[in-house]
């Protein structure tokens, strides 16, 4: 099976690295390059390559935008290329979508290419898998960076990075910062759905914490744990929040 391949990346060095590896494979008949999403869309529509290596993070038109312009159902087989971003990787793995993380080894590239060729030889690529993976990435883009809070007649904005923890208070929430507290008229569930799950974890039905502000975690009793934040605040973790606990153990606050 001879394949035509399109390599899309705004970084020439990264693009050429993939091209060189592809040139070593006897199954690759033709290789084209694009340095931006707009030209990639035109190339896909005109030449219909069998396989695409598509960078996600590109200026102007990202890899996600390019897929949206073509339509996932009309996309050729696609290997997404990304800088290390755990959320993107989980989205791809959950939907069996092939990906490469920069920088990648020759062995990793060979494994990914073989997997892509095997899927093309079998039943092809399922567009719904690409759609589901990209939808997960789009949700990440919708997560809050700042939260508007009202004080008297004034509205100010709180950066989510400054949040230490959030407490449920009936139909409101209390946002705890290192230097104060703000009350927000929103339910815990509604706010939680708009917070990045890479950065915030619900450790109790009435408490959400910023995982980057965690100083330590200690076992308590009856399966409970105590989470100490970098402000010294100690919060009890429900014994049912095992997933949150595992995330906290494997995540270290960024300095």
UniProtKB/TrEMBL annotation:
**Entry-linked Gene3D superfamilies:** 3.40.50.2300, LytTr DNA-binding domain
Molecular function, one GO term: DNA binding
Query: Which residues does the UniProt record annotate as the domain Response regulatory?
Result: 4-117
Classification via SMART domains: LytTR, REC
List residues of the HTH LytTR-type domain. 147-251
Q: Which residues carry this modification: 4-aspartylphosphate?
A: 55
Which PROSITE patterns is this protein grouped with?
Answer: HTH_LYTTR, RESPONSE_REGULATORY
Q: Which UniProt keywords apply?
A: Phosphoprotein, Two-component regulatory system
- Please name the InterPro entries in this protein's record: CheY-like_superfamily, LytR-like, LytTR_DNA-bd_dom, Sig_transdc_resp-reg_receiver
| Name under which the protein is recorded | Response regulator transcription factor
């Amino acid at each position: 099976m001879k394949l035509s391949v399109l390599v899309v990346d705004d970084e020439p060095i990264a693009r050429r690295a993939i091209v060189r590896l592809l040139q070593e494979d006897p199954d690759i008949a033709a290789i084209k390059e694009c340095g931006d999403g707009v030209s990639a869309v035109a190339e896909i529509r005109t030449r219909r390559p069998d396989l695409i290596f598509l960078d996600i993070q590109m200026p102007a038109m990202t890899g996600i935008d390019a897929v949206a312009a073509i339509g996932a159902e009309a996309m050729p087989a696609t290997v997404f290329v990304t800088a290390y971003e755990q959320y993107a990787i989980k989205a791809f793995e959950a939907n069996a979508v092939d990906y490469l993380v920069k920088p990648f080894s020759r062995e990793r590239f060979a494994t990914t290419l073989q997997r892509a060729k095997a899927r093309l030889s079998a039943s092809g690529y399922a567009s719904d898998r690409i759609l589901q993976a990209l939808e997960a990435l789009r949700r990440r883009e919708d997560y809050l960076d700042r939260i508007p809070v009202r004080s008297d007649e004034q509205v100010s904005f709180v950066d989510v990075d400054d949040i230490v923890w959030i407490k449920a208070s009936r139909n409101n929430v209390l946002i705890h910062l290192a230097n104060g507290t703000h009350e927000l008229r929103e339910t815990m569930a509604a706010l939680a759905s708009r917070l990045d799950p890479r950065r915030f974890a619900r450790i109790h039905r009435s408490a959400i914490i910023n995982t980057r502000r965690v100083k330590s975690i200690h076992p308590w009793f009856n399966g409970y744990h105590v989470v100490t934040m970098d402000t010294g605040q100690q919060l009890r973790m429900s014994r049912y929040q095992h997933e949150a606990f595992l995330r906290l153990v494997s995540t270290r606050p960024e300095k």
